[in-house]
Amino acid sequence: MPANKKHLETSVWQRFLKITAGLVGGFFVSITFHMLLMYFFDSPPIYATMYITGYLLWTILFILAFVIGNGYKIWLTYIGLSVLFYLPYLIAPLHT
Known about the structure:
It is a single chain. This protein is mainly α and 96 residues long. The chain has a domain at 26-90. Helices cover 78% and strands 0% of the residues. Helix 1 packs parallel to helix 3. The protein starts with 11 loop residues before the first helix and ends in a 5-residue tail after the last helix. This is Iron transporter.
């Protein structure tokens, strides 16, 4: 059964923004979220579960990028979340 044309994205630029936001932005949100967890909790258990939860979170964020209507809003949201999750490292970096 072919897709209904009214539900397909007509703008090539919006389609490009959604795909790149899902791939690149979703990856950065997933990584910085786990970095936030490692900042406050012990790192080895988070490293162990990051292989599974990171991939699942990235997949969910990739799908979410296509559900949200505007590619610019997706990029702004993902950049904002990445900066928010990375903020503890910017304020008080861990010295190892």
